[in-house]
Design goal:
This protein is mainly α. Helices cover about 40% and strands about 0% of the residues. The longest helix is centred in the first third of the chain and has 13 residues, at about 5-15. The relative contact order is 0.08.
Amino acid sequence: MMSNAANASVSGARARGTLGGGLARTRARGRGVAVVSPKGGNGKTTVSSSLAVALGRRHQTVLVDLDVHFGDVEYALRFHPIHRLDDAVRRLQENSKVDLS
């Protein structure tokens, strides 16, 4: 049985003609959480990393460290990323039409 929201989504898709092959394609909206402070050394990395790990156990989760110069999330989670935010910034500076995907 579909929820009212899913039912409305299917009805809206039918009205727009976007319901393909008899299957409803709905997209759930995600939620965002920001851990912010202008001062360093107050635990933003610890809080955001722990929160992402806890949420990641039940939901698809993305953690973005927007501190280009001093981002430490990769170290807190013991990741070895292939690309970092500063790589994306550098590529955009080199060519503003570049596709970052």
